[in-house]
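Please check this.
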Amino acid sequence: MGIAKVIEISSSSAESFEDAIEQGIERASTSVEDVRGAWVKEQKIVVENGKIVEFRVDLKVTFILKE
């Protein structure tokens, strides 16, 4: 497997936690190569006037370092 590194990112979506996770992984994959996995560290919501307006996630993303 080699050596892995973990980075922490935050992502948000107006639709759902799942969409926020997918957007975060997709964006991380454009910046780092060989993303192998991730886990959700924290989930948050933003509420305005009694309604959820944003879903936020903090992710820890694992990728393999180049040799």
Q: What stands out?
A: The longest strand covers residues 35-48. Residues 4-64 form a domain with the Dodecin subunit-like fold (CATH 3.30.1660.10).
